[in-house]
Amino acid sequence: MRFLVAGASGFLGTAVQAVLVAEGHQVRAVSRSGRAAPGAEGVACNLLGGNISGLLAGVDGVLNLVGVLREDAAAGMTYRRVHVELAKQLARAAASVGVPRFVQLSSLGAAQSRASRYFASKRAAEDAVQATLPRAVVVRSSVVFGDGAPLLTGVSRLARLPVVPVPGDGRTPFDPIARHDVAALLAAVLAEDREEMAGQVLSVGGPRRLTLDDLVDWAARIGGRRGIVPKMHVPVALVDRAAAVGDVWPGVPVNRAQVHLLTTPNITEDRRWHRWVPHPAPAGED
Fold first, then answer.
1. What angle do CA 141, 142, 147 make, to 5 degrees?
2. Residue 31 falls within a domain, yes or no?
3. What is the pLDDT of residue 242?
4. Which long-range contacts does 37-40 make (Cβ < 8 Å, 24+ apart)?
5. Domain count, the chain
6. What pLDDT does 286 receive?
7. d(Cα 272, Cα 144) in Å, to the nearest integer?
8. Which residues contact 155 (CB under 8 A, 6 or more apart)?
9. CATH number, position 103
10. Closest CA to 70 of 238, 259, 224
11. What's the predicted TM-score (pTM) here?
């Protein structure tokens, strides 16, 4: 089968491409850079502009991975535009040419969309896709780990400080999930056409639950820090104000969306996805 992967050159996209190609599928890897995994067809395209229906010719399914943690209003890269408008445009294009399968990657935090504009945009994207394509499958993921993971990389930079400021009490729970497990799941859901999966929302997370303090310690080790990591728990409101600087200055290691990710429970008891990934890797393995 032939699949279009939108946002294919990112942290997850490259892994999904590799899985699909290894399973014998044809992959049209669409991104602004056009980078593609060996065996995939790379297409350089700004999906936010123009008619994209032509990209879907002969495609059996679409996987939308496009997302941003930092907005760039000057470049038109807002949460609303990248997450919601692009997903809506892609779903409508898929519907117009009769693409039978559509999978939308989202975040566990979308279930608590009032927590932040970031999560609200993720939920709005889900709703936009399923309003157009009622059979589309949504996969809500916990924090994804692996080499180059965006959120953990940001926390790792923060963990270089002599004393690490941690928003809240440090007890926010997470079920980190390995990149290769998410990639395997997305590829499987995209390739299968099970009636019982139509219109479903899968919530996925790894088997080892960590607190935010645990996550900071882990990110510090990833960054090469050894020993006990001194932490200072700071009221979320104060951290949120400070992180607002990161929304406009990339040199700041954490922005507001990342603070909201770190202070919103990111856990699930949904195990339906174990049908495809029966033995997910615990945090610390990838």
1. 100
2. yes
3. 79
4. 40/8
5. 1
6. 44
7. 18
8. 215, 216, 219, 254, 258, 262
9. 3.40.50.720
10. 259
11. 0.92
